[in-house]
Amino acid sequence: EIITVFSARLYGSRSHKNKKIIEQLREIAQEI
Questions:
Q1: Is 21:7 a contact under the CB 8 Å cutoff?
Q2: Domain of life, per the record (predicted)?
């Protein structure tokens, strides 16, 4: 959860790419 929040702030909530980035991070987080 911390990673997604961090990335969201990094890219900014304005970006509509945010959802795709979060989805990718979730997949990576599940692998770890």
A1: yes
A2: Bacteria
